[in-house]
Write a structure and sequence with these properties.
This protein is an alpha/beta fold. Helix content is 38%, strand content 20%. It has a single domain, classed as Rossmann fold (3-Layer(aba) Sandwich). Strand 1, helix 1 and strand 2 form a beta-alpha-beta unit. Helix 1 packs across helix 6 and helix 6 crosses helix 7. The relative contact order is 0.14.
């Protein structure tokens, strides 16, 4: 029986790829997309809701789905402050997961980051780790946490460092082998493909999927 999916962050790099995959997947007959701004899509399966993420709990009844895909995330530069960064990468993520758990969603699938650790000295990784821990305590049959390395793809916003590293990575691919394999930059499309496959798997519990494992899953 076809299911229902929900995606938050569909306007982002990974989220955009994931939305296309969900639109084409016959195992889902409805895709709920929650964004701040409407997106353009020709798929009749897509149901869009433009919410203020500060008040998600007010829309609990509209957020019912079997599989939840959370691709929310920002940068310190775009957020403007640690407080705003924490709100997007922790509060919004955990609030959505809490609502999904209360709605009895089967799985919650999160795009986190390599290095996520609540005890990290780096604020970015600390927040990601805190979000992972909070999510892992919630009641889901399956929780997939993807920890990609540097994500490759064309973004709307300009990120000079990422573009430079991506160019270097093409010429220094031989470096990412052996112990360094897990640091290999990964294409956004592969993350989306791997996360969707993981969500449809028969596994249960909390699954941490590292960057090199995401590549293997996507290409399997």
């Amino acid at each position: 029986m076809p299911g229902k999916a929900l995606i938050a962050g569909a306007t982002g790099l990974v989220g955009g790829h994931l939305l296309k995959l969900l639109e084409e997947d016959p195992e889902y007959n409805e895709i709920i997309v929650i964004t701040r701004k409407p997106i353009i899509t020709a798929s009749q399966k897509v149901v869009q809701h433009s919410f203020n993420f500060d008040h998600l709990e007010e829309h609990k009844e509209k957020l019912k789905a079997d599989d939840i895909f959370c691709c929310l995330g920002t940068t310190m530069k775009k957020a403007g402050s640690k407080q705003n960064f924490h709100k997007v990468d922790f509060t919004y993520v955990v609030n959505l997961a809490t609502i999904a758990s209360e709605n009895n969603s089967r799985s919650f699938n999160l795009v986190s980051a390599m290095g996520a650790n609540k005890k990290s000295i780096f604020f970015y990784n600390e927040v990601k780790g805190e979000a992972e821990e909070a999510l892992s305590s919630l009641k889901f049959k399956l929780i997939n946490i993807a920890r990609p390395s540097l994500i490759i793809g064309e973004r709307i916003e300009n990120r000079p460092f990422e573009k430079t590293f991506q160019l270097l990575a093409k010429y220094l691919a031989f470096i990412f082998s052996g112990p360094l394999k897990r640091y290999t930059p990964i294409e956004a499309g592969l993350i989306a493909k791997a996360l969707l496959k993981a969500a449809k798997s028969k596994k249960e519990g909390v699954q941490i999927i590292k960057s090199d494992e995401l590549i293997s899953i996507a290409k399997s």
